[in-house]
Amino acid sequence: MAARETDRPAAQATQAEPELELLVHGVGGTTPEKMLDDPRTVRITGDDTAAVFRRADHTADAPAGQGPHSEPVQEAYVWCNLTSGDGSRALWLLLLPFMVVNLAHWMRPAADGRGRTVRFYGLLVRLAALTLTVLLVAAACEVALDLVAWQCAGVAACAHRHSWLGFLSPAATDDGWWSLPGRRLALAASVPAALTALLWYLSHRTWSAYESHRPMSRDPEPETDGSALARPGFWYGRRLVARLRAAHTAAGLLTVAAAVVTPAARFDHRSGGPAALDALSWILAAALLGCAAAVVGVVCRRGRSENRLDQQLDRHLVRRLPLGALGLLLLTVLYAGWSRPGWRSAGRLPGDPAFGGLMLAQGLLVVVLIVVAHDLYRRHPDRHAGMRGLGGPAVALLACALGGVMSGGVAQRVADWLDGTRALLDGPPVLLTWQASAIPPILAVLLAVAAHLALRTARLARAERDRVRDEHPGEPEDPSRTRAIAQARAMATLTDRAPLVIAVLAATTLLLGAAALAGALATGQPPEGAARRTYDVVQAVAETSQTLGSWLVGVGFLLFVTWARRAYRDASARRTIGILWDVGTFWPRAAHPFAPPCYAERAVPDLTWRMATWTRHTGGRLVLSGHSQGSVLAAAAAWQLTPSVRKRVALLTYGSPLERLYGRWFPAHFGPRALTALHADVACWRNLYRRTDPIGGPVRLPGDSGPQVDHEPLRDPLAYGRTPQHPLPAPILGHSDYQADPAFARERTRLLARLHPDLPGQRPVPGAPGS
């Protein structure tokens, strides 16, 4: 049974003001027993998904927030089940392209007074996200409708090799009911339609777990130089996600309908076809275009509302748009299934123009996005921003490329599996084949970048050895110990090389995408004369790369299935998969509704409600203590507090990626001006980090006045050799166990002292850390 906290107004507080330390863990999760260093813990509030815990003795002796022996009460907020609690979360890996494009929405450069440009940036990302949904469903249509139902089932030899296709083959069933091409397409359409329904279900199922948790209602604050994370409606995107979900679901169903109706309409448009079917095809085409225009209109004009808590829902839009698309799909299925004498499946379905148009549209959107992002950056340049403000376009490009490579690889792998080595089928569209061929070159470039980083890290590790020796004068040198410390420091710097990796990968992807589009256009038009030999060599290399890419996709799929199965049985594997989403799913679903859900839409309101209610009931002050990703949640929760409550909160962050990752890649929300405003809003802030930490780092506030936020780098390990305090070798902690350093307790005590300006504090010692 959860313990109940006694309400006590501030006026009735004792002379010793209650003090609380609210701990927030980082990526990977942990247990409340480990966070509180006590085997007996009690849940104060929350549920099995996320909850606040206390030590049992603190709950019994200090219901109002005062621990025994005048120590601050500690509470642990455990949120790991939001991302890694269930084995089925492994399936979220399928939504990786959607998650990546959603990140691009939040990676825009900071901009003041450029509201229209910012909205145009968001519009471009939403349109790119829409093309990803269409691409994924179109790839499913290519596999199910074209490769299986049209090509393989229409060739007797291929259908004979796969007995489960026998009832669809005209030769095997003597022109049975399902053997007609239109009916085969109508039956196969159930596969991409089911995929669309699955995406809708996954997005809708997470509704109650995330979007339904409303933040605290409060009046909006006047516009400042702070972060948009302080706005009342930032962590409540229920209305937007519902709108986008309706639009993307309708887009997926319309894509399936278009794939079904196009081949039947092409047959009916021939001379001598039934006039009624010909007229019906034009009516269906007009209805599909009209519904598609409605979908694009919804995506274009429906943005986020952050300045207020928007609790309304567009129920008519959310229901009618997908139902209208579903109705059109059913009509196209009935139209395609009509008997057409003389219609036989031959060649491949006309998918080349569709995939080419999608790829061209994505390329144009990314180019315009680059121009807009550069315009925003040059007006307010920030030297700390990753890739000079072009991180968002680069990530959007990688999302589109990831979707294209996955689509092309899967289509080519299925075609190879159906056909074997008999060359019975025409295979997938040429563009998808060329996209599959991009996988080996991309892997080669990544290996080259990895080799470059490995050499650079080795050189840096050799240089660090001299620094490690200089930091421990008079101690006997242990070469292996020195190498281990130097290697840990050098490896930690790899995080700062992420812009190089993203830039090289984005540039390579852009070049390979252009080459794939050019190669698809040139296929089937071999030159004459001397250029023919060069053309043949390029074709041979491309075919080899396509085959290798196809097999790599197959191997990757097997690895994915193996990893997903392991996640059902192994808690550590679930935790590993959860770590992948702790960073990628921090942000709300503002661009793609089928992205994995935003856990911060539950965690941030939880923390905000706990801090606000505790300070109101007890009149006390608290230290908000966040490790790693927990420090990002802590900062977001502090921004959501009212100004009067913020002044009663001290912020202690350690191993924090606030500036090192979020400040560089999301400058509009965690840039220098936003973090400076946070420092001014809370009562006090202290940040701890180590040079061996690959994730956490200094905050580096510009023009920091008064007490400094960043502590000097903590020693890691705590002792170089054996000492009376450390008779056994001290471990290299890196990103973990910051509480083991004596500086942690010392800085927490100082923060609590600074929360009481009416009480005399300890006079800082000149030259001491933090003085």
TrEMBL record:
It comes from the Bacteria. Keywords: Membrane, Transmembrane, Transmembrane helix. The chain crosses the membrane at residues 120-140, 185-202, 246-267, 279-300, 321-338, 358-377, 389-411, 431-455, 498-522, 548-565. InterPro entries: AB_hydrolase_fold. This is Integral membrane protein.
